[in-house]
Amino acid sequence: MESVSEMHASGTVDTRQRASIAAGVDWLRLEQLYWDATRRVTFGVVWFSSDALRVLGVWPVLLRFGPLVDGRRMILGGLFARRPGGTIEWRSDGVHVAVEVVGFAPLLPGPLWRIELLLHDLVGRRFLTYVAREAG
Predict the structure, then answer these.
(1) pTM for the full predicted model
(2) What domain count does the chain have?
């Protein structure tokens, strides 16, 4: 698995997890597997519900997303976001499967953003494991 992250001078973050998985999985299924990985990594505390990550699927909104369009959702805000902006995208091309966040402005400033990054990395790893298992 490859995991690459970069923080820009603007305070936004780009991060990508990618693995070689020879499977053509549609982005609807990839998103479903990703939200399942989020729930499991957080021991059932964080659920995706009504276009948002929420504590126990209800409240508060940790991250709010726009509608899913071609495997991508806009990040609209929430407690973990300093401001709206950026996207999350799921891709599978039959050779690689990836989840990529681009232009996200994490709430935690400077080097503390690595705390949010660690959670995203754990979810990404679990997600890629699920995709590999389903493809195998």
Answers:
(1) 0.92
(2) 1
